[in-house]
Design goal:
The complex is a heterodimer of chains A (about 575) and B (about 150). With about 575 residues, chain A is of the alpha+beta class. Chain A folds into 2 domains: about 150 residues, no CATH class; about 375 residues, Glycosyltransferase (Alpha/alpha barrel). Chain A is about 45% helix and about 15% strand. In chain A, the strands form 5 sheets. Chain A has a 6-stranded antiparallel β-sheet with strand order 2-1-3-8-4-5. Chain A has a 3-stranded antiparallel β-sheet with strand order 10-9-16. In chain A, helix 7 packs antiparallel against helix 8, helix 13 packs parallel to helix 15 and helix 15 runs parallel beside helix 18. In chain B, helix 1 runs antiparallel to helix 2 and helix 3 runs antiparallel to helix 4. Chain B starts with 7 loop residues before the first helix and ends with a helix. Classes of the chains: A alpha+beta (about 575), B mainly alpha (about 150).
Amino acid sequence: MTPRALVRLLGGYAAFLVLLCIGVRAWFALSKPSEEIVVESWWQDGKRIGRRLLANDSPPMVAPPLSASVSKEAIVGEAPLFLHPLVFAMALVPGKDGVKAEIDGKIAYATVDDLLARQAYDRGHVWVHASFGWGVDRAIVLHVLSEELGVHASDLASRGRFRRVRFERRSSRGPAVPPRVSQLPQERSAPPPAPMQAWPERITEANLTRELVLDGVREAAMHLAHSVDDDGRFRYLVDAPKNQTLPGYNWPRHSGATFFLAQAAFVLDDPFVRYACLRAASQLRDRMMRACGPHRCVSEKGEIAEIGSSALALIAFTEIVRTGADGAYRPAIEELASFLRSQQREDGEFQHEYDRVKQAPIDVQYLYFSGEATLALGRTHRITGDARDLDAARRGLTRLSGRGWSFFGSRYYFGEEHWTCQAVSELWDRVPDFEALSFCSRWHEYQRRLQLDADETPFDADGAFGLGPLVSPRVTPASSRGEAAGALLDVLVGERKAGHDERNAELLLVKREFERALAFVMRHQLHPGPTHLFADPVAVRGAIPGSPVDWHLRIDYAQHAGSMMVRWLEMHALTASK
Amino acid sequence: MAIETRDRRARIGFGIANLAVSIFVVGGVFRFLPTRWWVVDTGALVVGVLLAASGVALLAKANVAEPLTRVAAAVVLVLGLVLFTALVATAGWISGVYGQVGVSGAIIFGLVAALVLPYVVVLPAVELVWLGPRAARTRDREIAPERS
C-alpha cells in the first residue's frame, strides 16, 4: 500500500467514526413522547397493588383504595433499548430510567419506583461486595415486566420489544386512611416518632442551618437507637423496601455506631438514645471483651483478633466517659488502650491481628485500622492522662502520614485517610504534627478533585465523591470525607484564631468541601424518603442509604453521616463564637 | 543527513506529534494531577519545553531541528524510561505492601504506565531511530560538498 493510499484509508476511517458517533448518539438519545403518559401506581406496605395509565390527564375510571399510597410517574422520554446481557446492564440511568415492554399487543412498564422497590439498580454486576455493584439487574426487570404482562420472562425476553423510558416523578401521596402502627420494639418504651420537621425542598450548602443539621442528627440517631435490641446488637444490615434484616455482622461497625450514639445522646440530651448507646456499649464490654494474652481486647471467640473492633470500641467508650453518659467504662478504656499499645511496632505502625492461641501479634495491615487505633489512643489520653497513650498516638500519626505512605506517586494516590485526619485534629492541641497536617491537607486537595459538581453526572450528586458519570454516587464516602474535612477545619479555624493566617484560603476550600458533602448526604437521608416504597416507613425513617438507588441500610452509613453532622454542629458553634 | 533532506511527511508528522505530546504532558500534569510535587512538575516542564521546541523547529524546518530533536528525544526517552520503571515497580511494590488498598493502587499505576508508554518511551525511541546515529550525520556533512 502506498503512503497516499494509507492516508486516504485512515482519513476515510476517521470520517466513518465521526458519522458513527453522531449516528449512535442520535439513535440512543431520548426523544419526547408524542403525548404525555402518566403511570399511576398504588402501593401498600411497600408492594404495588394496582396501576393505571393516565393519558392527557384523562379522568380516572377507578379510584385507588383509601389505604393505598399513590404515586405518579410521567414518561418524559423514550429511546431504543437492547436487552442483550452484554449491553443491558449499562443501558439505563439508575434512578431515572425504566423499561417499556410490548408483547402480543400488550404494553407494560417497569417504572423507576418498580425498580427501586425491587432494588434492581446497581445490582447487575456485583464486585466483591454488594456496595460495589453497577448496572441494572436484567432478571429483575424481566420479572417485573413479565408479572405485569402475564407471560414467562424467557418468552418476553425472546419475543418482546423494549424501549428505554425516562420517568419524572410528578407526585406521590400517602394513604387516605392512617397506616397500621409500626412494629417497633415497644417493650423498651420507644418514644413515638417525633413530628417531621419541614426541610427545604432541596438542601444545599447555602441553606444549611443549625436546626436543620440538628434534626438530621436526631433522625439518624433515632433510627439507629430503634435498631438496638435488648442484647445491645444492632440490626446490622436492613433491606429498606422490605424492612428485612439481612445476614452478617461486623464488630468494628458496631463499635462505630455506638460511638455515634454516644455523640448524639450528648448533643440531643436524649435518654432513649443514651440508653440504646449504653446497651450497645455493654454488649462490647461485657460480652465481646476477651483475653488477648496478658491484655483484653474486643474479639469474637475465634483464634484471631483484629484491632479494629478494639480501636473503635475504645473511641466509643472514651466518648461515653467524656460526655458523662457512664464513667464506669474507664477500666475498659485502660484495658483496650493497653492492648493497642502492645500491638504497636517500634516504627509506630500497628500490627492489625493478634493470635489468641499463640499469644502473639500478627504483623499484617488492613484498611482503616492504623488510623482508628491512633485516634483511639489520642482520645484515651484525654481520659487516662497516661503519657504512654499520647506517645503511642503521636508515633502512630507520624508513621501514617510519613513513612507509612511514602512511595513514587504517593502524592497522587491515597488510601482512606478519614481516621488519620481526625487523629491530626485530636492531637493538635497536645502534640501538633505539621507534617501530618500537610498530609491531611494533600488528601483533602485530592478529594476535592474527586468531588462531583451538579452537572457532572445525571444523578443528584453535587458534593458527592464519585468515580465517574456512570456509577451512582455512594453516600458514605461523602460522610467519611465530611467527618475528615470537619476535623481539618477544626485545626484550620484554631490556627486562624491563634493569629496564623497562612491557611485561610485553604480553610474556605475545606469548608466548602465539607458543606457540599453534608448537603449531599442530608439530601439522601430518608426524611422520610419515598414512603410508599417501604414496607414500614417508620422503621427506616432517618436512615442513610448506600446510594440514591441502593437502599440497603448498614449501621455505619448512619454512623459516618451522623458523626459528620455532629462535626458540623461543633464547627458551627466554634465559628459562631469568634 | 540534514533536516531539509529528510522525508517531508515524517518531519511534519514528528513535528505535530512532538507538539501534541508536549501539550498532553503539560496539560496532564498541571491540569489533571490533583496536587503539586516538584519532582513530577519539573520533569513535565522539561519534557514539555523540549518537545514543543523540537516540534516547532521540525515544522519550521529550522537548522537546529535535527540536533534539538535528537536532544529532546534522548532526554524524553531517559525520563520516560525512569517514569515507566518507577510506575511499574511501584505498582508491584504497593500491591505487595498495602494489601487491599494496594491492589486498586497497582491497577491505577499499571494503567498510567500503559498510558504514558507510547508518548514518552516509544515516540522518542522511534524519533532517535529516524534521526540515525550522530556519526552518520558527521560523515554526511563531510561528503556533502562532493554531492553538490
